[in-house]
Design a protein that fits this description.
about 210 residues; alpha+beta; Ribosomal Protein S5, domain 2; Alpha-Beta Plaits; 5 helices
Length: about 210
């Protein structure tokens, strides 16, 4: 994965679909933005239900910013002919948090290893061309707890640094899970500490 700026990452904005055909075989590629493996599983199950008679459901995904969370599968195709070429298209654009599934309907003619590699690569490339690439800040996840009386002050700090509120529980004592842009982390920590009674704790495995 090509990650040039550690404070930002590139992903896709919305799902897309494209089709590539070769000697009677149809290769239908679906691309989706995802942030977790559970999302991938749900999307793959939906596509399998949509294409129950397809001969193969091959895929690749990459999640996160450290380059280590990825998976490829050839789903019964010869080893290295489907998943890796699909992942290669994700990586060639420097993307992460992206899933590409390519559904194949066999057309009766064997394509051979070079033909399969080209078909899966081409289907993935076509689908990725149909969706916009967006640049997003890498976020550090924090749990933030505070008394409800200082809610406005806390939210003001969140807004100042464009923090993403991922989860919240508001009672007499409030608990928030927020994504803090890494580029602003030190300044955010300084300002949030100035609000009376706020406790902030970085979550383990917190980069996303």
């Amino acid at each position: 994965m090509n990650q040039q700026d550690p404070n930002y990452f590139q992903t896709i904005e919305k799902p897309a679909m494209a089709e590539f055909n070769d000697r009677g075989s149809r290769f239908i590629a679906y691309v989706h933005p995802i942030a977790a493996v559970d999302e991938f599983k749900a999307i793959l199950n939906d596509i399998k239900k949509e294409h129950p008679k397809a001969s193969h459901h091959c895929f690749a995904y990459r999640i996160g910013n450290d380059g280590n969370n990825f998976r490829v599968t050839d789903a019964g195709e010869p080893s290295g002919t489907a998943g890796r070429p699909i992942l290669g298209q994700i990586d060639s654009k420097g993307l992460t948090n992206v899933l590409v599934i390519v559904v194949r309907y066999f057309g009766g003619t064997l394509l051979g290893v070079p033909g399969l590699i080209n078909a899966y690569k081409s289907a993935a490339a076509l689908a990725l061309q149909l969706t916009s690439i967006v640049r997003k800040p890498v976020e550090i996840i924090y749990d933030v707890s505070f008394d409800y009386t200082v809610t406005n002050e806390v939210l003001k700090v969140f807004r100042k640094f464009n923090c993403e509120i991922r989860n919240q529980e508001m009672l007499l004592f409030c608990n928030y899970e927020v994504g803090v842009p890494r580029i602003h982390e030190h300044e955010w920590l300084r300002m949030i500490a100035e609000v009376k009674g706020v406790v902030s704790k970085k979550k383990s495995g917190s980069v996303s």
